[in-house]
Amino acid sequence: MRRLFVLLICLVGFVVVALFDQQLLYAQQPVAGKSLAKMWIDMGLNQDLIAWFNENARPDDIARVDHISLIDLLDQVHVGKRLVIFKSVADVEDLLPNITSKIDIVGYNLEHGPGNRPDEIADPVGSVIRMRDLTNRYGKVLAFGPDREFALNDGVAIAPYVDIFVLQVQRVQTEPETVRDFVIPLARQLRQANPKLQISVQVRTEGDVVAIADLLDSMKDQLDGLSILTSPETVDVAKALGVELRTAREPGVASSPLTTTTLTTTMTIAKPTATATPVPAILRMPSWFCAGGLLMAGFLGGGIVVTALIYVFQRNRFQRHRTPIGKPHG
Question: What is the DSSP letter of 286?
Fold first, then answer.
């Protein structure tokens, strides 16, 4: 009985040491971080911004025109991806076959208002599915930029059908808490619905560019890109914001390409990698080991208690019934 008791104690000790070692290894695991400077930028273009974009953009950045009438501006873009915003699936059905060589990304801006068709407003998920079919047919990436109501009510259902989801906050960008309360929980839900989804936040070129960058930086863990709504009157602000967003706010993080694999035309996005010293794989234990160890420790701990009780009970019983041995009578 004593040997069994000692054996159980040794097993529990082994489990405790192993669990401690596992926790130590997890503490050394690399921690992934994101940096605004490494994210792609989706910038609305006008004639005064084209030269700046060509000089400063990276291959994963996006040159965007917000109406089909401005598509000729994209002919002057020599770097990055090219995106045109559409307000209607019907327009894409009519126009995409003729402009497929000019663009890489189809943007669908669905909002409640006179700018969108009533039938598409009434069926947002069905409209996005139609748009998905069109972009698949022509090998294009699909970006979706809904208003707040569509984002909150239908975003999770729509997320599996799009490649990029743009959360518009330009109207409330001077209210950081309002923006964060909208973006952070919704971005998590969208990513659960589509783990491959690229998420960006759209801001406008008005106000303090440092404050705008600080706001975006506070949400960076939920974002993959940054969308900028520009105007001909705010060209200088747009340039300054672009520079501010590319200014490193933390130690540089090496990037590796992350591509969408569902389409013929892929979009490459810079994905930050870990900076911590990695743990050699040979030292890592299975991910289920910690939970299994805790369960085993519980069983063994219970076994020790039961064994101890049985041992005490049997010893007392033996002493109670033992016949005393006296000296012989002489």
Answer: P
The first and second tokens of residue 106, run together, are: 């189809």
Residue 171: Cβ within 10 Å count = 12
Contact 236, 206 (CB under 8 A): no
Place of tokens 């910690």: 290
298 lies in which domain range? 2-29+283-321
Rg over CA atoms, the chain: 31
Neighbours of 271 (CB within 10 A): 18
Strand partners, 257: 270
What string of DSSP letters covers 79-122?
Answer: SSEEEEEES-HHHHHHHHHHHTTT-SEEEE---SSTTS-HHHHH
* One domain, residues 190 and 220: yes
Residue at 329 is within a domain = no
Residues 69, 201, single domain; the answer is yes
Chain centre distance of CA 117 = 32
CA distance 84 to 98: 13
Which CATH number do you get for residue 166? 3.20.20.70
Mean pLDDT by 10 residues, the chain (330 residues): 51 42 33 82 98 97 97 98 98 97 98 96 98 98 98 98 98 96 98 98 96 97 98 96 87 36 34 31 37 53 61 60 49
Answer yes or no: pTM beyond 0.70: no
14 within domain boundaries: yes
Distance CA 315, CA 243 (A): 81
Cβ burial 27-57 (10 Å sphere, 16+ → b, else e): eeeeeebbbbbbbbbbbbbbeebbebbeeeb
The total domain count for the chain is 2
Would you mind telling me the total number of residues written for the chain in this entry? 330
Q: Are strands 225-229 and 164-168 parallel, antiparallel or unpaired?
A: unpaired
Is residue 148 a contact partner of residue 156, using CB atoms and an 8 Å limit? no
